[in-house]
Amino acid sequence: MLKDKIKSLAKAYKEEVIANRRHLHSHPELSYQEFETAKYVASKLEEIGITDLEKKANTGWTALIKGKNPEKKVIALRADMDALPIIEANEVPYKSQNPGVMHACGHDAHTASLLGAAKILHEVKDQFEGTIKLIFQPGEEVAPGGASYMIKDGALENPRPAGIIGQHVMPFIPAGKVGFRQGIYMASADELYITVKGKGGHGAMPETLIDPVLIASHMIVALQQVVSRAASPKIPSVLSFGKVEALGATNVIPNEVKIQGTFRTLNEDWRAKAHEKMLSIAKGLVEGMGGEVDFEIRKGYPFLENDPELTARATTAAKAYLGEENVVDLDIWMAAEDFAYYSQEIDGCFYRLGTRNEAKGIVSGVHTPTFDIEEDALEIGAGLMAWLAVAELEKA
Ligand SMILES: [Zn+2]
Ligand SMILES: [Zn+2]
């Protein structure tokens, strides 16, 4: 059976996948600067015998693995390759050698896993029908998102995949398990930049001033109405302000106050309405209080929806591969992920690879200086990805 063949290849290539992950981990590159990473990925693909690479979005690649009857159906597998501006605190042999840059979101694991899946799929390509498209993308961590550039550059054309599957490490799920969720899964994320302008001066003479600190205080409270009153209780929404800057003093009222925050939700229509609502609340408030406001909403990634049918099929395939007990259900997560761009274009399935190992102390969250993964999980990272693609092609 092909499933068992893939399992045994995943086992055989596990050490190589780990070695690739360690190489990538010790040589991390920031978003859109994945030049060495892209070269490494290309050399590994060529080593496997995959030579039709197409450069996309400057530091990204697509490549095809054609089975029998390659026109029949196309399924895409995606990995992201960028790292974060974090100083690694782990004392491990594969510690980051690029000061201040760290693979703290597991994109090294995603890239190494997809290279492993590619090696497996290339080896069994006479045993499935259809084509598998590999997508290695830059810049997941920084807006507007490498996925948006990959799509603009034609990553989803010639041939156009029927569906796309992506995986992400999850330090809250034990290694050995994976998680799936059908339907809405991750949030859209927009950045809010508000400048409240008034008229500063001596704190003892408020009657001659327009106090932007007071206006800004009201604004922070008033904007919460968007979540508490205007949002449908059925659609998760979150509005958080993490930066408020009023550079006055005990007796000095400044001319302006800057506020920064994030708005996240799981519905594109409501997202657009919420933007309008925030702008109108802010405008009405400053008008009433005599100030002015600059309100900039920088749109981030859209919300991520897992196609219910594709995800149901993938979940079933994962249970067949790993056993029912090793496939868990995921909750909605209000973080954002640029895989959402693909899922807005074609059927998408974004699932989680468990990488936690409490016994070894591998428990830190992503984006922390102590983040690491249980590398045993990479056998699943490579093997399951290969199997999910083949299982989906078999459903054609
Ligand atoms: Zn991240
Ligand atoms: Zn990530």
Summary of the model, kept short:
With about 400 residues, this protein is an alpha/beta fold. The strands form 4 sheets. It has an 8-stranded mixed beta sheet, sandwiched between helices. A 4-stranded antiparallel beta sheet has the order 10-12-8-13. Strands 7-14 form a two-stranded antiparallel sheet. The mean pLDDT is about 95.
Can you walk through the features of this model?
The protein is an alpha/beta fold and 396 residues long. The protein contains eleven helices and 16 strands. It has helices at residues 2-12, 14-26, 35-48, 107-123, 146-152, 212-223, 225-230, 268-289, 308-322, 339-345, 377-394, and strands spanning 54-56, 60-66, 74-80, 131-137, 163-174, 178-180, 183-186, 188-197, 201-202, 237-245, 252-253, 256-265, 292-299, 304-306, 327-329, 347-356. It has an eight-stranded mixed beta sheet, sandwiched between helices. Strands 10-12-8-13 form a four-stranded antiparallel beta sheet. A two-stranded antiparallel ribbon has the order 7-14. It is elongated, with a radius of gyration of 24 Å. The two termini are 18 Å apart. 49% of the residues are buried. One zinc ion (ZN) binds next to loops.
Q: What proportion of the residues is helical, as a percent range? A: 25-40%
The helix/strand order is HHHEEEHEHEEEEEHHEEEHEEHEHEH
What is the global morphology? elongated
What class do helices, strands and sheet pairing give? alpha/beta
Largest sheet: 8 strands, mixed
In whole angstroms, the N-to-C terminal distance is: 18 Å
Mean pLDDT: 97
Strand content: 25-35%
